[in-house]
Here is the input.
Amino acid sequence: MVQILFQNIGRFIILVLLQVLVLNNIQFLGFVNPYIYILFILSLPVKTNRWLMLLFSFLLGITVDAFSNTLGLHAFACVLIGFFRNLLLKLFASIDENLNFEPGFRTIGIGAYIKYVIVLVLIHHLTLFFMEAFTFAHFGVTLYRALINSLITILLIFGIQLLRGK
Amino acid sequence: MRYSIVALFLVLEAISFAIFVNNDRYPKSVFLSSSNGVVASLQAAANSVGDFLRLFPANKALSAENARLKDRITELENQIALAGLCDTDTSYFVYPDRNYTYIPAKIINSSTNKTRNFITLNRGKRDGIHPDMGVVSPEGVVGIVKTVSEHFSVAIPLLNPMIQINGKIARNNFRGPVSWDGLDYRYVTMNDVPRHVELYKGDSILTSGLTATFPENIPIGIIDNFVENVSGNFHNIKVKLAVDFRKISNVHIVSYKNFDEQVKLENAEN
Here is the structure.
């Protein structure tokens, strides 16, 4: 239990630092900015208290916000996927109620994990980009950016998970 | 239990949305922002990572700029060398004991083919340029500043009938107004020189120094030809301009320190 706690605290710190120190500085093609820090939310153990999951999501989002000067933006998107995470997990995969594991390729199956990541990243990125634009005026452009960045984030998350062998 | 989760979800989303919407109005007052010390120092670290990532394009840009500047140095060295070899008549540029100072400027737009030509210079109010300042090039007189904006000024060159410059014949100091007839960009005319004055083709025409706009003895041109005017009492002198208006690009704007004082005094007398 304590080990899981420290593992997640470590993951929180590493992902936030990776996001704000490296990924937020990559301005490839002017707008490519993948947000892989949400892997923290995606990887919380399945039996995490849902209160805690929402609070952690909020904390993660507000931390990234603090570094991006977008206070509230990431927090909103993170709380959203923090809320829907377990619902989607149950929808895509059959979960053994007695085990406490992290969602991953091995634990819930390749197909289920792919669907799980894609849907959650899309929810997060679409929310983020449209809220950041705060208008539907340039709908096409915003949608295009959200989708391109979602694709990159999804591929990066798959890559990280494959390298970790989970 | 289930409803309390939804309630927490809604509360957190409401908080996020509220601070997001209000963030624009109170960017600095909110305690979780970049002005916060911890965040700021971490962000400085983040910037250094960004700086590192931007080093490559920055290096390329710098080396390109270096090459340009080296070219420029060579070009300027050549110009200095040429100026040093030339005759010393161009020394009017720096006369510390006079009240004139020279502000270098570049011609960024000009015409020679109209009846009223204008020159745009890359200096303006910011550089201390005022209307009625003279414009000269190393070869000679160019024109007079007419209007000035913050960064630019428009000068009327000699190739514009709107201005008249007071010139004198170098040999005997007889003076007369020099103006353009609007025909050929290489020639101007000097009038009102009495018939009894002896003229020689090739004599220099210089500024008279009787106006506050130009210092004395700046070349205007040389006498190309002269005829008696209709009344027969004065010469009409055709002067070949010292400056080739199709070629000039670097000029100096003449700033006369006591211009205002002199003009004010003269106007008071009138």
